[in-house]
Design brief:
The chain has 265 residues and is of the alpha/beta class. Helices cover 33% and strands 24% of the residues.
Length: 265
């Protein structure tokens, strides 16, 4: 791509499309995580479905389960989504246990279920370094893209360490940074994790009704999922590529305003 081509392309996006932001109404966000506490005041009335993934002989099945959170991680992520998109509908898809750990097969089944069930946004604040899962995960992320479901995934917390599925180009990869304003995020031209969002000392809901300061790419990820839900709420016909392009343009503008601008190649 010739120098400056991406910037010119992004600048050609109609201003009204960049400015349009809904409240998440009509958008289903699948939080693939440790579960969600639906009784937390920040989430009350917004958790539409609670399912869990469990072994079924040699495979996996997805069933309705009693709502709840095994580790707190999912409640925090869902609360961050709703902070930005308060009218979004949360689907809790439990794949992690008490120590926020899970099995690769459960994640694959969760992705299949969320796309087949009609989720618009899939928040994946987790990852794996297991190379055997790379191809199956890539296939599911690509399938979601073709189905117009937008996958937002957290990058690894360790610099230079790659994790799946965040490295795949058909999703939106998110890194964390010390950004105080939840409305702010930055586009990082040429980086494997394209979007940088608040991920350090984020105040998030925690099971039992309280809040907790949390840090990590896991909590940057739902900020971007919330922004995506707002975009889809205002413009329901947007396809994944269009959403990514709008986010890139908005992220560049945020960087310019905050003195962090970089040239888009």
């Amino acid at each position: 791509m010739e120098p400056g081509a991406l910037r010119r392309f992004l600048e050609a996006i109609p201003p009204e499309l960049l400015a349009a932001r809904g409240d998440g109404a009509g958008v289903r966000v699948a939080v693939i995580d440790s579960g969600v506490d639906p009784l937390h005041p920040a989430l009350l009335g917004r958790v539409e479905r609670s399912v869990g993934v469990a072994r079924d002989g040699t495979g996996w099945r997805v069933d309705d389960v009693e709502p709840g959170d095994a580790a707190g991680h999912g409640t925090a992520c869902a609360g961050i989504v709703l902070r930005l998109a308060p009218a979004a509908r949360i689907w809790s898809v439990r794949v992690l246990g008490e120590e926020a750990r899970g099995r690769g097969g459960a994640l694959l089944a969760a992705l299949d279920w969320a796309v087949a069930s009609g989720a618009h946004v899939l928040n994946v604040s987790l990852g794996t370094r297991n190379p055997e899962l790379a191809d199956p995960l890539r296939a599911r992320i690509d399938r979601a893209y073709r189905a117009n479901a937008i996958v937002v995934a957290a990058a690894s917390n360790l610099p230079g360490q790659r994790s799946f599925p965040s490295i795949f180009t058909s999703l939106i990869a998110v890194d964390g940074a010390a950004i105080e304003d939840p409305e702010r995020f930055y586009f990082r031209c040429g980086a494997e994790s394209e979007i940088e969002a608040p991920g350090i000392y984020v105040c998030a809901p925690w099971p039992g009704g309280g809040e907790k300061l949390v840090t990590g790419t896991s909590f940057a990820c739902p900020h971007v999922s919330g922004h995506v839900a707002r975009l889809l709420s205002a413009n329901p016909g947007l396809r994944p590529f269009q959403v990514k392009t709008i986010l890139y343009a908005a992220g560049l503008e945020h960087a310019r305003r905050d003195g962090r601008a970089q040239e888009a190649a």
